Amino acid sequence: MVDQVQAAAPDGAGTSPEFVDPGTKAGRRFPPKGQPLITGFNRIGLWSLYIKEIRRFLKVQTQTVWAPAVTTLLFLVIFTVAMGRGGREVLGVPFATFVAPGLIMMGMMQNSFANSSFSLLSGKLQGTIIDVLMPPLSEAELMIGIVGAAITRAIMVGGAVALAMALWPGVTLMAAHPWAIIWFGLMGATLLALMGLLTSLWADKFDHAAAITNFVVAPLSLLSGTFYVIGNLAPAFQAISRVNPFFYMISGFRFGFLGASDIGNSNHAVIGAAVGVGVLNLALGFVTYRVLKSGWKIKS
Prior knowledge:
Elements: E1 5-7, E2 18-20, H1 22-27, H2 43-58, H3 61-83, E3 89-90, E4 93-94, H4 95-126, H5 130-133, H6 139-166, H7 178-202, H8 206-222, H9 235-243, H10 245-258, H11 267-294
Antiparallel strand pairs: 1-2, 3-4
Helix pairs in contact: 2-6, 3-4, 3-6, 4-6, 4-7, 4-8, 4-10, 6-7, 7-8, 7-10, 7-11, 10-11
């Protein structure tokens, strides 16, 4: 039998007492069944996912942060030696100084892709994807957490590469336009993080993700003016390079350091590219969100 308690009249008068079911009264504190308890933006859940992703790659930071810095520095050593030390200049600066920003950006983009492409794919293959899907996180929060962690890794790698190159003789890193360094650095890392997340949704095994890395990401980054100015190419290849979004990321990032690039030598000339890469990221972010929301290959 349900326990009942005596409740006084609301006006405090000496009216006859009423008996109410305390279970019913307590039940009014909760929403109906099926209605979510967490409404709005789940900040705690998003922060927890972000920290989880950060800790995942920091556990092997020798491989995920410092190794890319060493590899990228080897690129600088090999190309500067191959080009000779005879004072070769590109865009009015020594070749080592010219190529350094492109290598920093290339390392950031490649590692941003590697981080986000591993997140969901590892869960799918190891059978732990439910640990990501069960928490009360919306698709947007899930995407932001994974992409944010990938961008963080890209920034760490970029900082490590920049530190290594700053100590290399013959390289001078100056911030001619800090806004371009920040904007194109973030946009490049975001673009590859979104591409990596889409890859992790599509891929069924690690070979699929490796194929995208080797046949899409690496060629687009290496053939985007990282080691040369596209003005030295034939007109047809110049047109192909201008279709490559990596070209604008790397050239805009280089403009931030040198004040000169294939795009132009003034803020006005680069702003169009800055707006373009921002719009591209918004479009790709919307596509990624819709694919993630559909549950394609993760909720079947």
